[in-house]
């Protein structure tokens, strides 16, 4: 009897070993069939000899073309490649629910495109073999992506998961372009500045004095609102660098690098952060910040801005949102020097700020052709096509380079440049897995005012902002619970300190509460994630 049990036990072990080996082989065998490879052209166009169809789950922004199955750019690219992309577009509002449903049900597309797949899902479903590793495909079939990752190894590091695999092609901001890396930007109303008789503020003290003086003025009979944006967070974006916190960028809202020790820091308990809150409390309680800033609606902000009420703001290009006449009153604000001599601008994003935009699933029978499809748009010629459209229709080649046609720049139907282009291309709008190319992109951040602002700010931008970190599944589960509670409490207390609802005499109690909420455990997870990132795993 014992002998039979032992034999049964050994057979079970053998079966499990075979099962694991098979599963591993299935995960590693990510290439297309022999038939698919015979149909593939390794370079040039078309990508495949006989036409193929790829089913795509695609996120759709409100500003993007309505039906990507009939867009001039993609129609032309289909002729070039012989690949028919069958686009199933999902509006951003319902994207997360439908994306999760597709993954959970097993009813998978060949490709997830512009779907804002969270890093945690990329890692989880990648390890399960649902998303195939792209490393070898990039190496063999995507020369433009491969060359870019070799030129910027830090970007390759930022998209490689702890198991060594790349599961998605990201949307990238140009690492050489300050305006591309900046998020919102600071602006000063030149007309109001002239009325105060002051110079453009260079320090937090000068900024405070400017806001106080501006508060006493009026614009077209309306009271001036000294300082505002669409959220309090955006006001902090301008000022954190003046107090030496958030020095690794805004993708990590509570951790940075301690400037004295070089160690990871939860800056929301640092003395410098307390100083920042005291400064913001002074601005708010003296009426220098728009008083409904914690509940402000975008439409309300834009309406006030269009009337020229704001003396200072941290937002996007004012001409785009307030119109030429009012928006033209604004000049770039400065990186402010704070009370301890800090002078940085920290509203900066890692080039790898959004990763999950091009993931090939294990049901895709043509992964080589699929990776070649996106690789073309990483070339100079492909980038021009992606961002500017079709030569002769949306742009013309000139001695000074490609220029948009009159129909786009001065549309007879009164459309903006972005609206006119959207009739031909799938950008703007959406998480496209390409590099935001400053030479060809018509995005607002490449307008002259933004370029001037970025040039003014460039010497003070933080270097090497952290991308999002990768977490193991157990770590992610802890962060989803513990981290969410910590961030919620931090946000609540920040508002209470700024508005004066809670006295700074209770600061020590605030810090103690965070410690009791499990801050040490939270930071241990962050330290491990940072270590993995720094080691390039």
TrEMBL record:
The keyword tRNA-binding does not apply. Residues 1-23 form the signal peptide. Keywords: Signal. Pfam families: SBP_bac_1. InterPro entries: Bact_solute-bd_prot1, SBP. This is Extracellular solute-binding protein. It comes from Oceanobacillus jeddahense.
């Amino acid at each position: 009897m014992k002998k039979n049990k032992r034999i049964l036990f050994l057979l079970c072990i053998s079966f499990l070993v075979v099962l694991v080996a098979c599963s591993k082989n299935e995960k590693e065998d990510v290439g297309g069939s022999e038939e698919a490879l015979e149909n593939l052209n390794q370079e040039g166009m078309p990508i495949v000899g006989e036409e193929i169809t790829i089913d795509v789950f695609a996120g759709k922004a409100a500003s993007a073309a309505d039906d990507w199955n009939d867009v001039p750019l993609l129609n032309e690219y289909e002729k070039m490649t012989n690949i028919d992309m069958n686009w199933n577009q999902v509006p951003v509002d319902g994207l997360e629910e439908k994306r999760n449903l597709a993954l959970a049900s097993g009813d998978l597309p060949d490709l997830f495109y512009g779907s804002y797949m969270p890093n945690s899902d990329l890692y989880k479903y990648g390890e399960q073999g649902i998303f195939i590793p792209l490393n070898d495909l990039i190496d063999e079939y995507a020369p433009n992506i491969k060359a870019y990752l070799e030129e910027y190894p830090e970007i390759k590091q930022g998209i490689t998961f702890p198991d060594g695999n790349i599961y998605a092609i990201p949307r990238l901001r140009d690492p050489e372009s300050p305006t591309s890396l900046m998020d919102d930007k600071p602006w000063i109303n030149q007309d109001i500045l002239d009325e105060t008789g002051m110079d453009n503020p260079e320090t937090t003290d000068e900024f405070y004095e400017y806001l106080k003086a501006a508060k006493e003025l009026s614009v077209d009979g309306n009271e001036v609102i000294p300082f505002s944006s669409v959220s309090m967070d955006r006001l902090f974006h301008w000022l954190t660098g003046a107090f030496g916190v958030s020095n690794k960028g805004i993708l990590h809202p509570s951790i940075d690098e301690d400037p004295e020790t070089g160690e990871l820091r939860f800056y929301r308990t640092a003395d410098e952060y307390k100083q920042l809150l005291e400064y913001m409390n002074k601005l708010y309680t003296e009426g220098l910040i728009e008083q409904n800033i914690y509940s402000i609606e975008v439409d309300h902000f834009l309406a006030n801005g269009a009337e020229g009420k704001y003396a200072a703001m941290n937002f996007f290009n004012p001409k785009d949102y307030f119109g030429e006449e009012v928006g033209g009153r604004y000049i770039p604000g400065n990186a402010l020097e704070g009370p301890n001599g800090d002078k940085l601008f920290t509203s900066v994003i890692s080039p790898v700020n959004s990763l999950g935009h091009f993931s090939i699933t294990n049901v895709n029978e043509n992964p080589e052709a699929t990776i070649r499809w996106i690789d073309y748009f990483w070339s100079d010629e492909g980038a021009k096509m992606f961002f500017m459209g079709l030569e002769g229709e949306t742009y013309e080649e000139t001695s000074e380079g490609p220029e948009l046609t009159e129909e786009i720049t001065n549309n007879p139907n009164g459309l903006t440049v972005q609206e006119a282009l959207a009739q031909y291309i799938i950008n703007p709008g959406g998480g496209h897995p390409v590099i935001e190319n400053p030479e060809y992109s018509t995005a607002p951040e490449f307008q002259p005012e933004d370029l001037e602002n970025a040039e003014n700010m460039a010497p003070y931008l933080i270097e090497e902002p952290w991308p999002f970190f990768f977490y193991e599944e157990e770590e992610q589960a802890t962060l989803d619970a513990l981290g969410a509670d910590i961030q919620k409490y931090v946000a609540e207390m920040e508002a209470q300190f700024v508005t004066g609802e809670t006295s700074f005499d209770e600061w020590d109690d605030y810090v103690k509460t965070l410690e009791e909420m499990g801050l040490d455990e939270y930071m241990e997870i962050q330290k491990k994630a940072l270590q993995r990132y720094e080691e390039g795993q």
